Amino acid sequence: MDTLANTISTETDPRWAAVVARDPKADGQFVYAVKTTGVYCRPSSLSRLPKPHNVEFFDTAEQAEAAGYRASKRAGKDHSDVAAQHAATVAIACRHIEAAETSPALSELAQTAGLSPFHFHRIFKAATGLTPKGYAAAHRSRKLRQHLANGGSVTEALYDAGFNSNSRFYESADQLLGMKPGDYRAAGKNNDIRFAVGQCSLGAILVAQSERGVCAILLGEDPHRLVCDLQDQFRQANLIGADAGFEQLIAQVVGFVEAPAIGLDLPLDVRGTAFQERVWQALREIPPGQTASYAQIAQRIGAPTSMRAVAQACGANRLAVAIPCHRVVRSDGNLSGYRWGVERKRQLLKRETQT
Q1: 24: pLDDT confidence band, cut at 50, 70 and 90?
Q2: pLDDT by residue (tens digit) across 153-168?
Q3: Which residues contact 332 (CB under 8 A, 6 or more apart)?
Q4: CB atoms within 10 A of CB 261
Q5: C-beta of residue 115 within 8 angstroms of C-beta of residue 260
Q6: Which residues have a catalytic role annotated?
Q7: CB atoms < 10 A from the CB of 268, how many?
Q8: pTM for the full model?
Q9: Do the Cβ atoms of 90 and 83 come closer than 8 Å?
């Protein structure tokens, strides 16, 4: 009786219809497992169809494996073929977003790809680490920054970046640029950046602060080189040598470097793409004394295939220790590249594990 009930339940499940049709559009939405063989397959698999009462559905391959199933011999090839199809679909969608005068709607992108909005949204995020809306915003931000940096007018920049009104542009400008558009166009002109250079056991350390918060914590051997790096980032900002009050801030940062257990609670002026900021937020959630791999961070932000992009976001971090990219290691636990040197990374981790 149970077998009959399970057969009826499976045959009325729309997922079973997709398996029978070997529908490639269902790949990525679920997998089916076969109880008699102990393997799981994708809906489009060309494997021999099992009896309905022997089938069990799972949302992901990981869930099927957690339940004790293994991938079928054909699954590897199926996975490669589907991954290639998804990559091509997402690449076309990205070009469509970049070429459009205004950000296309999710339904439009999905229809062009021949997928449901839910499925398209899922594979796009898995491939790029961003939602279609987030990708469009990041592309708009990149175009805006590039146009202003090249000396274009603010009006030209806003329309070139896809804003169709001044009001929408100025509502978003501060978040996108970290300052007024005219100031960004002038490489930070009219913005005061206070900074100080000190010494710690890891060498020279520079701390800089804008009106919004700490915008740079740089480590190195040469204090002059650190100041030059800051000038390169804010070419025409008003760089102001710190007063006695600011010296207390750099002392707080140095104290945290030497004794991580005291903690560091500072307002930060974080400026990056939408993807970078998601990575940096995930880094701040790693507890002191613990580490995570690039693959784990990619999983946590919902972009499991974006390990390389995660590594690039770590390398773009300008807020040493405040955004703890030193807590990210390779999958085998070994240390990898660090913007301020692997030995400094080793020392920071050692201090955290000893507290």
Answers
A1: confident
A2: 444 444 444 444 344 4
A3: none
A4: 11
A5: no
A6: 41, 325
A7: 16
A8: 0.53
A9: no
